[in-house]
Amino acid sequence: MTAHPSAAPATGDSPPAAAPRILVVDDEPEVRAAVADGLAVEGYAVRGAADGLAALSEVATWQPDALVLDVMMPVLDGLAVCRRLRALDDRTPILVLTALDSVSERVDGLDAGADDYLVKPFALDELIARVRALLRRAAASAAADSRLAFADLVVDPATRSGHRGGRPLEFSRTEYALLELLLQHPGQVLPRETILERVWGRDFGPDSNSLAVYIGYLRRKLEAGGEPRLVHTVHGIGYRLDRPEGA
C-alpha cells in the first residue's frame, strides 16, 4: 500500500493554538511517515504506531484527539482496534484507511465504530481535511453535551446564554447560577435556604427578598415571549423547575 500525497497540503483551516494530538497507525513505514509529516506541517502533534496493540497502548497513555487507522495490519487489525475502543466507551474519532474499496468493507469499518473512511491511495490534503472535520464534529458534540436543557429551554454554561424556543437569552452571573441549580434538579422542590446557600453562599434570613427578586428576573426573561411558566413557587418551602401544567 502506498499513499500519494498531493503537491501541497490544504491550509484553509488552521488548527487551534493548542495542537490536537493525532495518532497515525499503519504497518507501512512510508505511509505512516507521509501522513505524520503532512499532519505535523499543519500544526498537529503526531505520534505513530505500527500495529493495533501498539495503537491501543498509545491511546491509553497519550490519549490522542483522533486516530488515523489502517485496517490491514499484523498482530491486531484496525477494525479490531475500533471494536476494542468502542467496547471501552472510548469515543475518540477514528479515520479508517483501507486498500479495499467495496461497500461491504466500508460497512464493516463503520459498524466497527469508525467515524470516517478513506481508500488508499489517497491525496494527503483530503486526509487532512477529513481529520479537521472529525475534530470539528467532536468539539461540537462535546459542547452540546455540556448544555443544560429542560422542556424548550437550553442553556450553555460556557457563555451563560441560551434560548427558549428560538428566542435568545442572556443571563447575569447570579441569574445563571440560580437557573443552573434549578436545571440540575428538575421537578425537585428546592428549599429557599438551600438555594440561598448554594447561589449566594449564605442564608440572608427570612426577611430578605433577594431570592424572590432574582426569581422574578428569571421569570421575566424566560417568559418574555409569552411562554408558559417553568419556575414555580412552592409556598412556604421554595421553588421548583417543572413543566407547565397540562404540558
Automatic annotation (TrEMBL):
Cellular localisation: Cytoplasm
Xref: InterPro entries: CheY-like_superfamily, OmpR/PhoB-type_DNA-bd, Sig_transdc_resp-reg_C-effctor, Sig_transdc_resp-reg_receiver, WalR-like, WH-like_DNA-bd_sf
In-chain residues carrying the UniProt-annotated modification 4-aspartylphosphate: D70
Segments forming domain OmpR/PhoB-type: 145-243
Broad class of where this protein is predominantly found: cytoplasm
Keywords: DNA-binding, Phosphoprotein, Transcription, Transcription regulation, Two-component regulatory system
Residue ranges occupied by any Response regulatory domain in the UniProt entry: 21-135
Residues passing through the membrane, by range: none
Annotated region of DNA binding: 145-243
CDD domains noted in UniProt: REC_OmpR_PrrA-like (cd17627), trans_reg_C (cd00383)
Name of the protein described by the UniProt record: Response regulator transcription factor
Organism: Streptomyces yunnanensis
Lineage: Bacteria, Bacillati, Actinomycetota, Actinomycetes, Kitasatosporales
